């Protein structure tokens, strides 16, 4: 059974590479497939780095991510995901507005969906994600000068927080783990995602 799983995972990695043709660069020059070329990201900029501003960013993240994940989980093409998000961008705006209202804050904000959202270079584990312009939903809170958070909405990879290299759902728990244990967990999550995608395409 173990050998079958290994073969399945290796086949999935090869298929994903052929399908999307995108790799991320490792610090030692190796390459590893995580984010495909055709992907839609979510980026949230906090007003500043004040604890309250960062907490509001996390609350907006949780609410928006939970809703959009439900929208895209059954989609198999970026065209379908793109159309759906364009049609429902006003709903995302409403989620942000309601989250801010519940927080008791009077924070201003903007919600944009663009094919040219600027992202800085990020190091995720030992892999480098180059700076550049990527298709994304960009939520800017206030002045947008605080630390940002981002993930990949489609294909659905928002269980990984590419901003700091931890699992979003286990952010606090991961902070207490040794580095090698965290990286091992991340690899297992990516392998599980690849197997899930494989099963969707062959069913």
TrEMBL record:
Protein name: Stage II sporulation protein R
Organism this protein belongs to: Halobacillus andaensis
Top-level division of the source organism's lineage: Bacteria
NCBIfam families in alphabetical order: spore_II_R
A Pfam family it matches: Spore_II_R
